[in-house]
Design goal:
The protein has nine helices and eight strands. It is of the alpha+beta class. One of its GO terms (cellular component) is membrane.
Length: about 450
């Protein structure tokens, strides 16, 4: 009796592949059988039906005096007789026009139809020979041609019956063969499913046992052994694991000491590595900060240089100086707008002077009535968290969904506020730009004071 517990994976997969191959062979044989035999019988019966009509036609032509058709009639007789014999008794069929192989039919309906056609054909053949006989009298030939014309439809109908019988028998045989194929297919699929269930069941059972055993071994139970079973491959794997555990047991103490030493070395290396990484990261951050400071200083120096050029070009033109300063700083700082207001609106300037700044405070900016805004202090800057809607008509290019920051900076010189900066930005300015604006405001306030004292327009 076959012991399924000792089946190998190779034999299991080999069985699956063998069954699939057998299924393909059965399907191929069934297709070949129906395409080469049953279709051949139907084709031969159909040819008989056409030949019967052909023989009757050519006999009439011969009787009318067309003696050139005699070879065609004789060849048709030979083929017709051979075909009937092949259909009735089975065997090989070979003529000049058709070659094939037929198997004898087991259907009594087909055999009876063939016997009826055979009997009628014998009489048909005998009467046809009278027409072909040159020694027959005219009266005999007239009777023969009348018989031919009268019985030709009968022979055609008998041949038609043969075709119907073979077709019906063919359909029945096809049904049996299909049932046979489907039955074998279902059987093979069932066996394959059982083999797969067997395979997965044993594999997963073994994996669970091995996981449990390895857990016990790792916890120090070196006397535990895995069960050796579950198939040739699984049994071999279990045996190798047990041998490995036995080899580890004698050197358990030394191995633990060596493992602790290696662990301490690894910790020391890891600690040194982490310290080096931290030092390198600190150096890298310091270099990045230094680079940023140098870039900010270069950017600030370049800004002062360009602003000095504006101041030199418009030192006697107060309005031109204010306009060019606003244009230059807007481009250089990447702002939406940079504006300079003089001390025409004393109420607003006094509000800026007297405002008590806190980390977060609120006030009513009287220039925009009934607007309550939150304010955040950035040195001397006021940053409105929401752009006043009343100011949007002055900026038609500003999209409705955009949130713009409004920064206000008083320009002071000798304790006196002589102007105010209004800065519009789509994003919060970085610290180095804010510091640059804060420093530049002192120079700008001084320039406005001098131009005011000198009376420059």
């Amino acid at each position: 009796m076959l012991d399924y517990n000792h089946l190998s994976f190779r034999s299991t997969f080999g069985g699956l592949l063998g069954m699939l191959l057998g299924l393909n062979v059965i399907v191929f044989f069934s297709a070949w059988y129906f395409s080469t035999n049953h279709n051949l019988e139907i084709d031969v019966a159909g040819r008989n039906r056409m030949l019967s009509q052909k023989i009757a036609l050519y006999l009439n032509l011969y009787y009318s005096g067309d003696y050139s058709v005699r070879p065609i009639i004789e060849e048709a007789y030979q083929w017709h007789e051979a075909a009937l014999e092949a259909l009735q008794h089975g065997g090989e069929l070979s003529t000049s026009k058709y070659e094939g192989e037929l198997k004898s039919s087991n259907s009594e309906t087909v055999k009876q139809a063939l016997r009826n056609a055979k009997a009628e054909y014998v009489a048909f053949y005998y009467v046809g020979n009278i027409i072909l006989d040159t020694k027959a009298s005219v009266a005999q030939k007239e009777q023969a041609i009348q018989y031919i014309n009268l019985h030709a439809p009968i022979l055609l109908e008998l041949n038609e019956a043969v075709v119907r019988a073979i077709t019906s028998h063919d359909q029945l045989e096809r049904g049996k063969m299909q049932l046979f194929v489907y039955g074998n297919l279902a059987l093979m699929l069932m066996v394959c499913l059982l083999l797969l269930i067997y395979l997965f069941r044993h594999v997963f059972q073994f994996m669970d046992k091995m996981k449990h055993g390895l857990r016990r071994i790792t916890l120090g139970d070196y006397d535990y052994r895995l069960e050796e079973g579950g198939g040739k491959e699984l049994e071999e794997l279990s045996r190798h694991i047990n041998v490995l555990v036995r080899l580890l047991v004698p050197d358990q103490g030394s191995d633990m000491e060596e493992e602790q030493k290696q662990f301490k070395k690894a910790l020391a290396k890891k600690s040194i590595k982490e310290e080096l990484i931290q030092a390198l990261n600190a150096t890298r951050l310091d270099l990045l900060k230094r680079r940023d400071r140098e870039n900010a200083m270069k950017w600030e120096v370049e800004g002062y240089r360009q602003f000095s050029g504006v101041l030199a070009n418009y030192c006697f033109n107060r309005m031109g100086f204010l306009k060019e300063t606003a244009v230059f700083l807007s481009k250089y700082l990447g702002l939406v707008q940079f504006s300079v207001f003089e001390s025409e609106c004393e109420k607003n300037l006094n509000l800026l002077i007297n405002l008590k700044f806190g980390k977060e405070s609120a006030f009513d900016f009287s220039a925009f009535s009934d607007i309550y805004l939150e304010v955040i202090q950035e040195n001397k800057f006021l940053s409105f968290s929401q752009f006043p809607e009343e100011m949007r008509p002055a900026f038609p290019w500003l999209k409705q969904e955009e949130r713009i920051s409004l920064l206000l900076l008083p320009l002071e010189f000798n304790g006196r506020v002589i102007g105010m900066l209004q800065i519009l930005s789509l994003a919060q300015l970085p610290p180095f730009k804010m510091a640059f604006i804060n420093k530049l405001s002192a120079t700008l306030a001084h320039a406005l004071y001098v131009s005011e004292e000198k009376g420059w327009v």
